[in-house]
Amino acid sequence: EAGVAQSPRYKIIEKRQSVAFWCNPISGHATLYWYQQILGQGPKLLIQFQNNGVVDDSQLPKDRFSAERLKGVDSTLKIQPAKLEDSAVYLCASSLVTGATNEKLFFGSGTQLSVL
Amino acid sequence: KNEVEQSPQNLTAQEGEFITINCSYSVGISALHWLQQHPGGGIVSLFMLSSGKKKHGRLIATINIQEKHSSLHITASHPRDSAVYICAVRAEGGSQGNLIFGKGTKLSVKP
Q: What's the whole-number mean pLDDT along residues B24-36?
C-alpha cells in the first residue's frame, strides 16, 4: 500500500515570498489533515478536509495561508506571503475513518520549510 | 498549561532496558494516539487507544481513562527505537479533526 506522499521535501524561501506544498493521501482516505510542526513542539492542526469539504480550519491563519482539495484527493497548502515564524515542518496526514474507535492516522514525511 | 503533557521530555537508555513514557491530559477524550517520529519528520502511528491496553511486538500502551493518563512501554529497548514519541488525544465533543498533541519525548537508546 502506497503511503501519504508529500512534496517538496525541503523548501527554502525568503520572507514575503510565496510557497506551495502538495499532498497525495492514501487512496480511498476521505479525511486529509495539514499540520504545522515548529521545532521542539508537537504538530498543530491547520486544516482538516472530509472529501473536498473543510471540516475544521479554525487554526489556519487565513490572512496568509490557504488550502484546497478540489477533487477530494490531492491537496495543496499555500503560504502567501511567508513570514519568518512560518519556518516549520508541514505534515500531511490521512485517515479512512475519522473519530471511530478503529481510526488510524497515516502521515507523510513532511515538507521542511525555512523562511530566511 | 498544555492540555497534553508528556514526561520525560528526554530519555537516554542503555540497550535492553525497559522504558516507560508517560502522557497525562486534562480534557475528556474519545481516543488517544501514540506516534513515533524519526529524524527527518516521518511519523508512524503506533497505537490508538480508547480503553485498556494494547500490545504490538515490544511495545505496550495502556490507558486509564479515570486518571486521564496513558503510558507507552518498550521492552528490551534497541538503538533503532531511538525516536521522538508523541502522545495525541482526540477531545470529546470538539471538532473531530483536532488532535491535541503533546510535545513529545525524545528517546535515545545507546548500544
A: 92
